[in-house]
Each structure stands twice: as structure tokens, then as C-alpha cells.
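thread: overnight batch results

M.L. [08:02]
morning all. the overnight job finished for the chain we discussed friday. pasting input first so we're all looking at the same thing
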Amino acid sequence: VCDEDNEILFEFFLERKPNIPDTFSWALTEMEAGEQEFAHLEGQAQHRESPFRYETACVPRISCLKFNMWYPRYVESRFYDSSAYSIRLDGVVYSENQLKMGTYGNHKLNKIIKLGNCSVETVCNATAEDLFAMDFEVSAAPYNYCEYNSLYESSSAIDTADFIFKLSKESEINYENYYVWGSDYEGFEVNKTYSFMTCIPNDECAKFSFATDNSVTYYKIFQNGAELTQRVVHTSKDDFEKGLTTTNAGVCVSGTLSLVPGGVVASALAVLALLVMSL
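M.L. [08:03]
and the structure it wrote out:
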């Protein structure tokens, strides 16, 4: 049980697929400026154990964290790991999908998720990169959603194909080069809050695109701790971005920026909790 005044709960869910190497490992570390790290959680999956793993750790309420999942660089067998996982902090989903790791094709052997209250100096190369982050809460599923998608008729999940957003270089059309997009998640649960953060080049234009009719209660986007409030709603029939609401990022940031106190990026729920505690 965590100390509610000073700590929040980190959760890692993993459902392992059969016939894959048992050298899969993970570690949760707290990051500080100057590349200092403190380990809160470490582990390794073994086939002799249950395929389902649930790992938790109580971490400081105000902390910047990195969750690393990896296989050793040199793995003798050829494999593809599609095990399902979910990473959450204080109930907020930071990453949830299949691992999609392995030795086939262009798949990687490691995956790093940044989460918590982070600054660009802590998690990025501040001389060459900006820290981009987003918080959003999913509201109701699209109207008559279950009627035309029988796969979800008894679930609150919204398929990624019906929940479109992306962050990419300006005019980038290859999804493999997107910094983040909806398909990085397995799906979206109604009344659930999601968050992500990533480092992007600070000398290039980037654009965040969000389907105008997405089913969200709210979404907020940040660059280096400043909220980006510019919204361009594309409605013209001749506009190739019709149906999207876009915001410039990277070196092309425009519009109003609202600085988050302390210059750090924090999930909306974390900020709200701190405000309540201060009353």
C-alpha cells in the first residue's frame, strides 16, 4: 500500500506468449538531471512461471520515471514477441499494446516508456530536442459504435482505427516514422485517462493531428512544459487534412503557450491531485 500523501502506484501488466526466449527483462528507474537514476523495480520473465505477470511499485508522487523492457542484444533464436502489456502510473495509461519485439525484420529488442513528472533536461538531449507530451481522457464511444462493429458489442473498448491522432514531422506520410500515433495503443477504454511523452528534434517542424470528432472529454498537449493551445480545424473539402484538428510543434510552434509551473510535464490527474492536496 502506497503512502497516499507522498507516493503513487506504478503498475506493469504482462501476458507472455508461449515459445519465446525467457531472457525478457524490465526495470523501472527514477530519473534525475545529470543522468542519475534510481531503480524502483527490476524483473525477468521465466517460462516456468505463470504467463501472466503483475508488477507494482510505490514511487514518489513527484518523480520522472523510465520503464525499460528488453531482450539481450545477442539472442540465439529467431523469434517475434507479441505479448500483451500495459504500463500505468496512478491509474493513467502510458503505454498499452503488444510488445512487437524480436529478431525478425525491423523489430527492436528494447522499448522505453517515459512517464511521470519530467522536464526536457531530465529525459531528452535538451540542446537538440524538445519534450512533447499529451494527456487525454476517452469519453463515450462513437454513436452506434457497437452496431457496426460487432467485435466490441460487449466492451467499452474503442478500436485504434476509430481514434485517430499522430505526432510526426511536417508532411510525413510514412507511419513508421511517426513519433507517436493511435496505433501505438491496442485500443482505448471509455472513461480512462491516457498520457505519453516523447523527445523530438528542436530544429525541425512537427505537427500534431487529432481527428476533430474523436471521442474525448479533453486533450492537452505540451512542449517543454508549456501547453500548446493552437488549434486549426480543417473543414475545406479541398484540404487534404479535412476532418483533422492540428497543432504546430517543434521549431514551428505558434499560438498561445501556457507554461506549467516548474517547467515540467505532468499528467492532468497528477496536477489535479496536487491542487487538491494544497487546499
